[in-house]
Amino acid sequence: MLNSIDIVIPDEAAGSRLDKVLSGHLTDMSRSRIQALIKEGCVTLLSPNTAPGAERTIVSASSNVKPGEQYRLAVPEAIDAEPAAENIPLSVTFEDDHLIVIDKPAGLVVHPASGSPDGTLVNALLHHCGSSLSGIGGVKRPGIVHRIDKDTSGLLVVAKHDKAHTGLAEQFAAHTAERRYHAVCKGHPNPLSGRIEGNIGRNPRDRKKMAVVPTGGKHAVTHYRSMTSYQQNGHAVATYIECQLETGRTHQVRVHMMNAGNPLIGDPLYARSALPMYLKGQARSGLAKFKRQALHAKSLGFDHPITGQPFKFECELPYDFLQLLEDLEPYKVAE
């Protein structure tokens, strides 16, 4: 649940930063917390008539306010400060005293949030690792260095103590960690392989989505290559691709491929659910039954944060992904 707070900008606050004005009104909330809520798309600018659809989400804390403007802050309901250990099975690819690499199944949330207070990867790790998990990621995200979306499967690494966490986080921040994803997108990318660059930020019209934004956002680069193309009766049905992340932003592969005109099969946020009329038979049924984004974190490479040893891990495609490729196999384009 969200608690809404409406604030009208007074005359004396004209030209001030949005986060400063909000923190002055909400004395029980830190400025950094307000900045985080703005970044998450929780602040809406209401038009004078507040007509449906006239509201606009504000995602920049440094936006200048005007007298008489009305802002609505939606504050997520508080959840327990510390997640509890839960006996949830884990697929462990590698583990030592410093870190653990997990092959996460689709459907498992990485860390607790307002919509998923338990049953997460963090809950499972607390049971598996005990009190050894790093606290540098915060009580909600102990040891978490990076994350993948709930319905994305594949590899991620978790630190067991602060030194390992810092060493891994530095590699991800410097973009020296290697991350390769396998995906199935709609249509055929043009060109079949290439580089997508575009800043990613919160979609101003829908705070649940990210978007390639003309200003602001965070720098994002994705390298992709087509591995197998599928077509039916001359129509471009889908393409099996590999994406290498140069940066790691929220929904990066999903947003970049959507922006390029090739959203991922099954993506509930960025792809239209309706299938084109030309799709028939096995191709149609295969795509229709795939109910999540066709995205899998296939390989992960980094230097061990303590020993310096270079590591590279790979994992198999999950069953539903393999079934999707099998359903598309009759429509494979000969090389």
How big a fraction of the residues is strand? 25-35%
Taken in chain order, the helices and strands follow as EHHEEEEEHEHEEEEEEHHEEH
| Tally of DSSP helical segments | 7
Shape: globular
Q: Specify Rg, calculated over alpha carbons.
A: 22 Å
Largest sheet, strands/sense/barrel:
9 strands, mixed
Structure class: alpha+beta
Give the end-to-end Cα distance, rounded to a whole number of Å. Answer: 52 Å
Average pLDDT reading: 90
Helix content: 10-25%
Spans of at least 5 consecutive residues whose pLDDT stays below 50 are none
Number of strands: 15
Secondary structure layout plus pairing:
Layout: E1 2-8, H1 18-25, H2 31-39, E2 43-46, E3 56-58, E4 70-76, E5 92-95, E6 99-104, H3 121-129, E7 153-159, H4 162-173, E8 178-186, E9 193-197, E10 200-202, E11 210-212, E12 221-232, E13 235-245, H5 252-259, H6 281-288, E14 295-303, E15 310-314, H7 319-328
Parallel strand pairs: 7-14
Antiparallel strand pairs: 1-4, 2-3, 2-4, 5-6, 6-7, 8-13, 8-14, 9-12, 10-11, 12-13, 14-15
Helix pairs in contact: 1-2, 6-7
Structural notes for this entry:
There is one protein chain. The chain has 335 residues and is of the alpha+beta class. The chain is built from 7 helices and 15 strands. The strands form 3 sheets. Strands 5, 6, 7, 8, 9, 12, 13, 14 and 15 form a 9-stranded mixed β-sheet that branches. A hairpin with a 3-residue loop joins strand 5 and strand 6. Helix 1 crosses helix 2 and helix 6 runs antiparallel to helix 7. The longest helix has 12 residues. The radius of gyration is 22 Å and the shape is globular. The chain starts with a strand and ends in a 7-residue tail after the last helix. The mean pLDDT is 90.
